[in-house]
Design goal:
Layout lengths: L1 E6 L8 E5 L7 H11 L2 E9 L4 E7 L1 E5 L7 E6 L10 E11 L11 E3 L5 E3 L6 E5 L4 E6 L1
Parallel strand pairs: 1-11
Antiparallel strand pairs: 2-6, 3-4, 3-7, 5-6, 7-10, 7-11, 8-9
Length: 144
């Protein structure tokens, strides 16, 4: 299955948006950890044509906090098209990359864990590295 996004040739609207959804399988500490970590991350967009040739490479995106009725914050990743992005008609595959930099500190009252040497240290469950979104489906961009 795929998510399909349609766009007219030469158009810059509508912007491409994807919502980051926490699926409820995580305990509160992990949800809070993710929300803190996403604020210290870079989000980029890449798009390739059917031959695998790059059309857009690691273009910066906006991370938007959306209003909801729940207590948990929700985020939307937004890519704003440029004229050159939609100059050519065709079908493209897109993906967002979230690069977590780590380097965040866990507060003193947080849990402790044993490291590989068996010593106790403060937990640093903050993600580090790359996460590709969407996770479950391909993102197809159709420029008509």
């Amino acid at each position: 299955m795929a998510q399909i996004f349609y766009l007219n040739q030469g158009s810059v609207l509508p912007t491409l948006r994807i919502e980051l959804v926490l699926d409820g399988r995580y305990e509160f500490f992990k949800v809070r950890t993710f929300n803190n970590a996403i604020q210290n991350a870079d989000v980029t967009f890449t798009m390739v044509d059917e031959s695998g040739i790059l059309k857009i490479s690691n273009a910066p995106c906006n991370l938007i906090l959306t209003e909801t009725d729940s207590c948990e914050p929700r985020y939307v990743i937004e890519y704003r098209w440029k004229k050159r992005d939609t100059k050519v008609r065709g079908q493209f595959k897109g993906q967002f990359k979230i690069t977590f930099h780590g380097g965040l500190k866990v507060a003193d009252e947080e849990k402790e864990i044993r490291n590989e040497n068996g010593e106790w240290e403060k937990a640093t469950d903050y993600p580090v590295g790359d996460m590709i979104a969407p996770i479950y489906e391909n993102l197809i961009i159709m420029v008509k």
